[in-house]
C-alpha cells in the first residue's frame, strides 16, 4: 500500500490535482477559525453549551453541524457551511420531477445541466441571506452580540459576511471539481465531519486517562474494546452495503452486417441496493428536529408531564422507542420516495430497447419496465433496512454504553455514511488515473493485476 501511495505522487497530473485539493480544503478549514467581528464569542459559546445540555435547539444545532460541514455555533465566516447549496440542489432535483420546464432542461444534456447549476447558485444566495439573517437575529436575542454593533447595520454586515463565506465555499467545491480530484462539495462535507473526530476521541478517552481503565468501571478497558470492535464492524458493513449491487442479466440482439455478426453479448445491468444514498437519513433527521424543538419548548412553557416526557423521548442520549420507530418509518418512506424520483424504470426499459438489448424472459418495453420496478421495490426494502439500522446505532450506543451522542454519531448515522461514500468515490477517481497509466489500483492486489 505504501508503494502504491508513492506511485500516486509520481504521476505529475494526479499530484497537481491532489495538492490543489488539499490546499483548498486547508483554506476551507482555516475559515472556521475566523469569527464574525460583531459577536461576543465567549458569551455565545456559554449559551451554546447551556443549550446542548438542555436538549431541544442545542441538540438540533449539533446534528445540523454534523452533516452540513458547518460550525454555526461559533458564528464564523463559514458558519453556514455548504448546507444552503445542498438544500438548493435538492430543491431543484425534486422540482425537476414535477416542473416540466426543469424536466426539459435536465434532458438537454450538458447545456441544461449548466443552466440548472446557474439557477442553483442564485437560489443558494437567497437561502444564505435568509438563514444568516435569522441566525443573527436569534443570537441577538440571546444577548451575544457586542452592544455597539447590535443594530440593523451590524446585523446586515454579519448577514452579508456569512453569505459571502458560503458562496466562497461553493466556489472552492467547483474548483475542486474542475481542477482538483473531483467531487468537491462532498469532500468539503467529509472534511468537516472528520475534523470533529479528534474532539470526539478525546471526549471518549478522557475518562480513561483520568480515572484509569479498571474492569467494570465507566471507562473500563472492556468498554473501549467493544466500541473499537463495533466501529470496525459498522464501517465494514457500511462499505459492503454501499458497494452492493443487484445485477440484472441483459442480452443484446444480434445484428448481421455483411458477413459479420454483431451483438449477442451477455451483460449485466447493475442496480444499487442503496439507491437513495444518504438522503433518506438527512430528510428524516431534519423532520425529527421539529418535534425535538417543539416539545422541548412546550415543556418549558407549560408545566406538564406529557410535554416533558415527549421532549425526553425526542431529545438527548435517551432517545427511546418512539423516536427510533419514527426515525425508521421516515427512513423507509424517504428511501422509496427518493428512489421513485431518481430511478425511472420506464426510461431505463426504453434505453435498453433503443440499444437493442433486452432482459431474457421479458419483452422489451412495458414488461421490462414492470420487472425493473418490482426488483427495485424489493432491493429498496433491503437498502432501507440497512439505512435504518445504521441510523439507529448511534442512539442505541449512546443509551446502552452511556456515552455522549456526538461521540456515538461516529459509529453510524449520516456522518459515517457520507465519509464512507465519499472515501470510496475518491479511491475510484484515483484508481481511474492509475489504471489509465497501466498501474494497479489502490485496492487491487498485485496478483489480480498480473493475472489480468
From TrEMBL:
Quaternary data: Component of the Sec protein translocase complex. Heterotrimer consisting of SecY, SecE and SecG subunits. The heterotrimers can form oligomers, although 1 heterotrimer is thought to be able to translocate proteins. Interacts with the ribosome. Interacts with SecDF, and other proteins may be involved. Interacts with SecA.
Gene Ontology CC annotations of this record: plasma membrane
Superkingdom field: Bacteria
Location within or outside the cell: Cell membrane; Membrane
Keywords: Cell membrane, Membrane, Protein transport, Translocation, Transmembrane, Transmembrane helix, Transport
GO biological process terms, semicolon-separated: intracellular protein transmembrane transport; protein targeting; protein transport by the Sec complex
Similarity comment: Belongs to the SecY/SEC61-alpha family.
Species lineage: Bacteria, Pseudomonadati, Planctomycetota, Planctomycetia, Planctomycetales
Protein topology in the membrane: Multi-pass membrane protein
Transmembrane residue ranges: 18-38, 77-99, 119-136, 152-172, 184-204, 224-242, 276-301, 321-343, 375-399, 405-427
Function, in words: The central subunit of the protein translocation channel SecYEG. Consists of two halves formed by TMs 1-5 and 6-10. These two domains form a lateral gate at the front which open onto the bilayer between TMs 2 and 7, and are clamped together by SecE at the back. The channel is closed by both a pore ring composed of hydrophobic SecY resides and a short helix (helix 2A) on the extracellular side of the membrane which forms a plug. The plug probably moves laterally to allow the channel to open. The ring and the pore may move independently.
Organism: Symmachiella macrocystis
HAMAP family reported for this sequence: SecY
Protein name: Protein translocase subunit SecY
Name of the gene encoding the protein in the UniProt record: secY
Major localization listed first in the record, in broad terms: membrane
